[in-house]
Write a sequence for this structure.
């Protein structure tokens, strides 16, 4: 039986935009939390909370897209798609916990907000890397 080449799987442009938007927003939240921890100007923690909330909006829509895409028949067999989905779920969950910590008083949110922002950014970086590396695989199967 001869194998036929399938069309290359590429990431949808809307999914790519949603996924790419989370990285600078989570980075901004991390930098704002770092600025607050070094200056104790309350506006920095507010700015970090808003950046985290904005990143969660984009991450939520990217997660919804990834879940729908994962349950398509041709994606379930690829373990890299499952790893991408798990990384995106972890990013959203840790980011949501970070949003709850940001909701506390500014002084009370440190150092937990800074640590959670760092963990969320690292998870977002892994999610974006896995998402683009997994979904743009153009090799024939």
């Amino acid at each position: 039986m001869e194998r036929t080449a399938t069309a290359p799987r590429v990431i949808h442009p809307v999914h790519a935009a949603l996924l790419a938007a989370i990285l600078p927003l989570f980075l901004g939240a991390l930098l704002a939390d770092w600025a607050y921890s070094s200056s104790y100007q309350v506006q920095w923690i507010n700015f970090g909370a808003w950046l985290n909330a904005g990143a969660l909006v984009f991450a939520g829509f990217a997660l919804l897209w990834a879940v729908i895409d994962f349950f398509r028949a041709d994606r379930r067999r690829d373990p890299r798609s499952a790893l991408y989905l798990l990384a995106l779920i972890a990013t959203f969950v840790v980011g949501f916990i970070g949003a709850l910590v940001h909701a506390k008083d500014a002084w009370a949110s440190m150092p937990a907000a800074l640590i959670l922002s760092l963990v969320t950014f690292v998870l977002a970086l892994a999610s974006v890397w896995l998402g683009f590396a997994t979904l743009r695989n153009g090799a024939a199967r």
Notes: The chain has five helices and no strands. The mean pLDDT is 88.
